[in-house]
Amino acid sequence: MGTINRRATDLRFNGTILNGRVDVFQTIVAALVKNKNLQLVLSVGDQVDPKRIGPVPSNAIVVKRAPQLELLKQASVCITHAGLNTVLESLVQGVPQVAIPITYDQPGVAARIAHKKTGVVTSLDKLTTHRFAFLINEVLTNPTYRENARRLQKAITEANGLSVAADVIEESLGARKGNDRSGLGPEGEGSTNSIPF
Question: Is 2-156 assigned to CATH 3.40.390.30?
Answer without folding.
Answer: no
